[in-house]
Amino acid sequence: MDNFMCVIIRIIPVLLFPKFIMAAHLLPAVSFCLLILASQSFARLTGQGDVNAAQRKVYIAYLGGLRSENALSVKSLHKRILSKVIGRYGASERLIHSYTKSFNAFAAMLSDSEAKMLSDLDEVVSVFQNKQNQHHTTRSWNFLGFPLTAPRAALESDVIVGMLDTGIWPESKSFDDAGFGPPPSKWKGTCRSNDNFTCNNKIIGARYYHLEGNISEGNIASPRDTEGHGTHTSSTAAGHVLPNTSLSGLAEGTLRGGVPSARLAVYKVCWDNEGCWDADLLAAFDDAIADGVDIISISIGSSFPSDYFSDPIAIGSFHAVKNGILVSSSAGNSGPDDSTVANFAPWLLTVAASTIDRKFVAQVKLGNGQSYQGMAINLDGNNNVQYPLVYGGNVSNETAGIDGSISRFCIDGTLDGELSKGKVILCDSLSDGSGPQHAGAVGAVMETSDANDFAFGFKLPASVLGTDDSAEVLEYANKTSQPTASVSKSEGVLDGAAPYVVSFSSRGPNPITPNVLKPDLAAPGVDILAAWSPISTEFSGSLNIISGTSMACPHASGSAAYVKSFNPTWSPAAIKSALITTADIMSPTKNIQAEFAYGSGQVNPIAAVKPGLVYDAGRLIM
After folding, report:
1. What percent of the chain clears pLDDT 90, i.e. is strictly above it?
2. Tens digit of each residue's pLDDT (9 = 90 or more) over 403-416
3. What is the mean pLDDT of residues 542-565?
4. What residues form the catalytic site here (predicted)?
5. To 10 degrees, the CA torsion angle through 101, 102, 108, 111?
6. Which ranges in 426-518 belong to alpha helices (H)?
7. Within 10 A of 616 (CB to CB), how many other CB atoms are there?
8. Coil, helix or strand at residue 62
9. Res 177 pLDDT > 60
10. Pick from 259, 277, 260: which is nearest to 268 by CA?
11. Domains in the chain, CATH or no CATH each
């Protein structure tokens, strides 16, 4: 195309001035032709000719292991590789981040075609677009047969647990450093402290990452947790011992982590309303490995399976394991369908969520005296006061063009405020309760056709009933002239069927490597009380009860740290082997997918300290 354009330009003077065909007459055209060629060459060199800058996206190029410990030389290498695709003049501007401490990779702004060209280079292992991941949202340790009186190793205070999550709320009592000495000498990390955040001898390190774009409103540029998830997982893994703790009387007992004397290193990679980006995850792994953590706990994962060379958690954890660090990860919350498991790389410890012998229920009492027990976490109830009961399909927000076929689901904005105010609303689906709450309702009764084996927290008195019970409540509402109902405050009741894998916990088999069993084991992940960020928009308080494989993962992380404290020379493979081979066998009759639901069984930290035999892993050199 370049030569064709020059030919057209060169013949223009000949066509216009046939009598004056002289070399001098062609000089302007030749000069103009050279100018075009030069400008196009410059566009290639600077990467400006192929696509508008707004169309470029962040891609990550993974190059394998480090060949140099000099960060500057590694970054120079990244620029040289990048310049092969976009030109030497644009490499510095397009390079967003170089991973130089624990593995060899970089993130850069590229077009799709440039990313394809980069992936074709011999020195590049893989290239993948920076995608968004999500985190997998007291009594539990005792239920595992791991009481507060369990033997403790003197080296527990030398174990460092690295938490990749939403940050931490350092003022929580769970992270008090009373009685702690200085950090272990092996610690090489740092605390990105400012007026908003400080570390102590419990939280010995804290960093935050946001490589692409600006931090959104409501978030804080510090390791401080504004969402709550990271504070919850950190206190579950290694929180301080807090006796006589409860959430408004629920889950009363001693709150503690698995290794209360261990240290915490916090890596904030997830942001409220933003999720957790690949580039940030890799940066945290890069730092955590170099900082000297012993265990990495990551309750994060993608909703879609990726091959190992395009998965930042698989890549980061691979290099962590190579450096002697066990990585504990959540299995995901996409169950109970088959092959939904996340974080399935063979070197990861992948953790499913199981129940404990306590569940939270809320009673629905009708005006005719009939009562129904549903699942919910209500901190308040209707105090046995009967309120008018209405069906969501009969209180439609008609001014907004909503009819009963939509309002029956009680979605926010679909209910008429005048017709809903001061009433208990019966809904045909499960929601967060914001629809009835914003419409002025005093309570909600929701229906679910799912297993209903864990409780949601609500901001108004609510209860979740199964299909049959909900149908009976609706029949009462339709056949009674003035139906009424009352929803109670939640209470904890015994669940004698526990432990079993909860319905939301993702199942195997492994979608990429089917002959590698995933998940590896199960741990408590249902209705777990732990510390919380008091400025969270989800729930305002210093404690919260939530469920997810995110909650199961730190139970396994704390168990791994406990084993490490007694066996400090064990490799990640040895610790993983000990946890798997000593897990308590779970019932296949309660879990129809059996090993694809719970792996080897329920984690047993005390048994894993002395398993009798461990299976280590070596390196295959090819």
Report:
1. 76
2. 999 999 999 999 99
3. 97
4. 165, 229, 550
5. 170
6. 434-438, 467-479
7. 12
8. strand
9. yes
10. 277
11. 2-46 (no CATH), 54-130 (3.30.70.80), 135-356+499-609 (3.40.50.200), 358-494 (3.50.30.30)
Distinct helix (H) and strand (E) counts, the chain: 17, 27
* Mean pLDDT, residues 155-184 taken together: 96
pLDDT at 538: 86
Orientation angle between helical segments 229-238 and 549-566, nearest 10 degrees: 30
**Parallel, antiparallel, or unpaired: how do β-strands 443-447 and 358-366 relate?**
unpaired
CA-based nearest residue to 317, from 177, 520, 475, 458: 520
Q: How many CB atoms lie within 10 A of CB 479?
A: 8
Instruction: Report which of 247, 263, 265 is spatially closest to residue 255, judged by C-alpha positions.
Output: 247
- Using the Cα atoms of residue 467, residue 432, residue 425 and residue 413 in order, give the sign of their dihedral: negative
3-state helix, strand, coil in the chain (%, to 5): 30, 25, 45
Q: Sign of torsion, CA 564 569 573 578? A: negative
The overall pTM is greater than 0.90: no
Mean pLDDT of the chain: 89
Look at phi and psi of residue 213 and say left if phi exceeds 0, alpha if psi is from -120 to 50, else beta. Answer: left
Strands 295-298 and 160-165: parallel
Q: Point out the least confidently predicted range of 156-165, 190-199, 359-368, 470-479.
A: 190-199
At 26 the pLDDT is 36
CA distances from 567 to 316, 342, 570 (A): 24, 29, 6
The three-state secondary structure class of 313 is helix
Long-range contacts of 416-422 (CB under 8 A, 24+ apart): 419/390, 419/394, 419/395, 420/390, 420/395, 422/387, 422/388
DSSP for 359-424, please give it.
EEEEEEEETTS-EEEEE-B-S---TT--EEEEEGGGSB-GGGT--HHHHTT--TT-B-HHHHTTSE
Beta-carbon contacts of 70 under 8 Å, excluding residues fewer than 6 positions away, are: none
**Which pLDDT does position 38 carry in this prediction?**
42
For the stretch 262-295, what's the b/e string if a residue is b when 16 or more beta carbons lie within 10 angstroms of its beta carbon? bbbbbbbbbbbebebbbbbbbbbbbbbbebbbbb
pLDDT digits (tens, 9 = 90+) for 95-134: 999 999 999 999 999 999 999 999 999 999 999 999 999 8
Per the CB < 8 A criterion, the answer to whether 486 and 318 are in contact is no
Q: Is residue 511 within 8 Å of 341, Cβ to Cβ? A: yes
* pLDDT reading at 6 higher than 60: no
For residue range 197-255, what is the model confidence (pLDDT) as tens digits? 999 999 999 999 999 888 888 889 999 999 999 999 999 999 999 999 999 999 999 99
Q: Which element (helix H / strand E) includes 300?
A: strand 300-301
Other CB atoms closer than 10 Å to residue 138's CB: what's the count? 25
pLDDT of 12: 37
Instruction: Characterize the bridge pairing of strands 528-531 and 543-546.
Output: antiparallel
Q: In what order do the strands lie in the sheet with 326-330?
A: 203-208, 263-268, 160-165, 295-298, 326-330, 349-354, 521-524
Contact indicator for 326, 351 with CB cutoff of 8 Å: no
Residue 293 identity (one-letter amino acid): V
Longest Cα–Cα distance in the chain: 110
Rounded to whole angstroms, how far apart are CA atoms 259 and 356? 19
Q: Find, among 552, 543, 497, 545, the residue nearest to 525 by Cα.
A: 552
Please identify every residue annotated as catalytic. 165, 229, 550
